[in-house]
Amino acid sequence: MSDLVTARLVLHPMSVGEAERVVAGEAGSGDRWAPGYPSDGDVSAAERLLRACADTGDPRPFGTYEIRRREDGRVIGGVGFHAPADETGSVTIGYGLVPSARGKGYASEALRGLLLFAREHGITRVKGDADHDNAASQHVMTAAGMRPTGEDERVRFFEIAWTDETTASPGPHS
After folding, report:
1. Locate the N-acetyltransferase domain: which residues (predicted)?
2. CB of 116 within 8 A of CB of 168?
3. Is residue 114, in this structure, part of any structural domain at all?
4. If pLDDT is split at 50, 70 and 90, which confidence band does 164 have?
5. Counted domains in the chain
6. pTM for the full model?
7. Cα separation, 24 vs 113, whole angstroms
8. pLDDT band for position 173 (cuts 50, 70, 90)
9. Which of 63, 90, 156, 163 minimizes the number of CB atoms within 10 Å of its CB?
10. How far apart are CA 6 and CA 173, in angstroms?
11. Residue 28 belongs to a domain with what CATH number?
12. Has residue 135 been placed in a domain?
């Protein structure tokens, strides 16, 4: 499977070997990790990918992606699907960036790229959530075209859905 490319980023589908290195916290000779990568969230996503590969096979294209800056190839975070689409065509996403990459629009750009990819591959609904005190993550989802749909005691829920009448683009590209 090929990389997804946005204006400033490359969303690289994580392989089993890359996921194993992320879980171990040990970069390989070709890995270009930014300081702070992998985070706990990146490790969790890599573990989820490895479990999926062992249980049901590689979930690509609905797996985990490394977020790499095009300018220097550094891995600055991750974005991806928690699992393949359910029977209704719905998926759940997650994302995160190393602290030094935050506040530059990278997360919104990566999420917009992933949403466009999902729409182009027949997904009808994408869901996500953010902790109540994580205003930055809530902003990322709204900037990418997702809308709040509810909340519980811990998180606020967001989603975007498409029908035949809606556009294939989740929002403006940066």
Report:
1. 9-165
2. yes
3. yes
4. low
5. 1
6. 0.90
7. 28
8. very low
9. 163
10. 8
11. 3.40.630.30
12. no
Residue 132's pLDDT is 96
Residue type (1 letter), 144: A
Which tokens hold the place of 7?
A: 């204006």
* Tens digit of each residue's pLDDT (9 = 90 or more) over 118-130: 999 999 999 999 9
For residue 139, give both structure tokens. Answer: 């902003």
Mean pLDDT for the stretch of residues 145-158:
97
Residue 39 belongs to a domain: yes
Compute, in degrees rounded to 10, the torsion defined by CA atoms 105, 45, 28, 104: 10
Q: Which range marks the domain in which residue 89 is found?
A: 4-122
H or E segment to which residue 20 belongs: helix 16-24
pLDDT tens-digit profile of 23-45? 999 999 999 999 999 999 999 99
Q: How far is the CA of 64 from the CAs of 33, 58, 97, in angstroms?
A: 16, 10, 14
What does the radius of gyration of the chain's CA atoms come to, in whole angstroms?
A: 15
Q: How many residues does the chain have?
A: 174
Q: Which residues lie across from 156 on neighbouring strands?
A: 130, 151
Inter-axis angle of helices 106-120 and 135-143, nearest 10: 40
Query: Which residue carries 């392989």 as its tokens?
Result: 15
C-alpha 42/C-alpha 46 separation (Å) is 6
Contacts of 133 by beta carbon, 8 Å cutoff, 6+ apart: none
Note whether residue 171 is domain-resident. no
